[in-house]
């Protein structure tokens, strides 16, 4: 391995230290100079900024002033146009309203006329219908009355006949019952108590009548 | 000869049942006499009486040879007899039947044989059937004949 003498090493160290100090100093001054330059630039920038801000404010003021005017002008124009449009719309609405009113009146008039005509026709029809209905009702009532009368007469006749038949039948029944009752009574009373002589007389009378009638030839 | 025998039998016989009963009794008597035939059923007393009332000449007309023939003839003649059905309201005894028969013989002046029937609905009197024709001469028919008069009399009470 290569070995340097100590003096050389001290010299090299001193030389490096000296270079380092020189570099430090150089850096120190360089930085100081930069700071000054930066300060100056900063000052300039601040001034320019201030100038710009002032100019901007002035410009803003001007722009604002100009904007206000323009706005005012626009508003005025808009107002004028709007009033014109409103006036036109009002006129148009008024015209339309007038036309609508006129149309409605005309419609109303026509409706009234139509209603009158319709009412007259309806009245005529109803009158004719009522007259027809009245005639038909009258005919129907007459027919019904005739039929009812005829039916009642028939019913009465039938009922009278029925009553008469019933009466006749009942009277016949009563007559038969009277005779049957009489026969039954006589049979009960005479059946076993009639004297033989009387019965024989009746038998002889029967034989005589048979002869008279020439029943036994 | 057979007609004379029948007339003798019918002299006092007035009903069909009497006639049949008496003929049977007579036949029984004669067969017993001629052939010693013994009947199980003796004749009723009433017919025995009638047999005894017959004249002796009447019985002499019969003999062993003709008895069956005579009865056959008589039975065939009975069918031809005029039979009249008579409806009565009571059951007559022999005496009553005789009275009715004698009266009929006298009234019609001819021989009549009655077929006796019972009908209490007649009330009294008699109804007759001759040759299939019915005729009511009873009290019931009299009431029927006077129906209107009777009803009018009844109706007088109803008013």
The share of residues in helices of chain B is 55-70%
Which strand order does the major sheet of chain B show? 2-1-3-4
Number of E-type strands of chain A: 0
Mean pLDDT of chain B: 87
Structure classification of chain A: mainly alpha
Chain pair with largest interface: A-B, 27 and 34 residues
Subcellular location (chain B): Membrane
GO molecular function, one term (chain B): proton-transporting ATP synthase activity, rotational mechanism
InterPro entries (chain B): ATPase_OSCP/dsu
Keywords (chain B): ATP synthesis, Hydrogen ion transport, Ion transport, Membrane, Transport
Characterization of this structure:
- Helix content of chain A is 93%, strand content 0%.
- Chain A is an all-alpha fold and 217 residues long.
- Chain A has a domain of 58 residues.
- By secondary structure, chain B is α+β, with helices and mostly antiparallel strands.
- Chain B folds into 2 domains: 77 residues, no CATH class; 63 residues, no CATH class.
- A 4-stranded mixed beta sheet of chain B has the order 2-1-3-4.
- In chain B, a hairpin with a 2-residue loop joins strand 3 and strand 4.
- In chain B, helix 1 crosses helix 5 and helix 2 crosses helix 3.
- Classes of the chains: A mainly alpha (217), B alpha+beta (159).
- Chains A and B meet through helix 1 and helix 2 of A and helix 6, strand 3, helix 7 and helix 8 of B.
